[in-house]
Design goal:
Elements (H helix, E strand, L loop, with lengths): L10 H13 L4 H13 L8 H7 L4 H14 L1 H6 L14 H12 L11 H10 L8 H11 L1
Pfam family, one: HTH_32
InterPro entries: Homeodomain-like_sf
Protein name: Helix-turn-helix domain-containing protein
């Protein structure tokens, strides 16, 4: 099947990629992308996607995606990858609320219970108006950070 995205690297781009590979500059993903682009260069080795994938232990779809990214988004994005679009989710509990949850966990459980369960802690945190709503998973993550 003919290639839809043809990689044509300038002399400067080839030198930069060779520098990345030689000095192992950047992440392992960046080095692999550089290797893939050099082998896919139409004016250079011009390997098939299957051969490149086999040589660098990746899928042919990965090679196709790197080719596509080079053609559509440019050299820098193809080598360095895309930056994360969404910011990480904000913390659900602040430091004071976390301290209250930990203190509650270290105290005695309510009457009729032998130990604190995550769901019981979550219920108690809501009942005591520490937070408006919280899941047992958030409580687990908070307690896990405690060590």
């Amino acid at each position: 099947m003919p290639k839809k995205y043809i990689v044509r690297l300038s002399k400067c781009e080839q030198e930069e990629l060779q520098s990345v590979i030689k000095k192992l500059k950047g992440s392992s993903q960046k080095v692999r992308r550089a290797q893939i682009l050099l082998k896919a260069d139409a004016s250079g080795p011009n390997w098939t996607d299957e051969r490149i994938a086999e040589a660098f232990c990746c899928r042919t779809k990965t090679v196709e995606n790197i080719r596509k990214r080079l053609v559509e988004q440019g050299f820098e994005v193809a080598v360095n990858g895309l930056k994360r679009q969404s910011a990480p989710t904000p913390k659900l509990l602040d430091g004071e609320q976390e301290a209250q949850v930990i203190a509650m966990r270290l105290g005695k459980p309510p009457k009729g219970y032998g130990n604190w369960s995550l769901r019981l802690l979550a219920r108690q945190v809501v009942e005591l108006d520490i937070v408006e709503s919280v899941s047992h998973e958030t409580i687990r993550q908070t307690l896990k950070k405690m060590g």
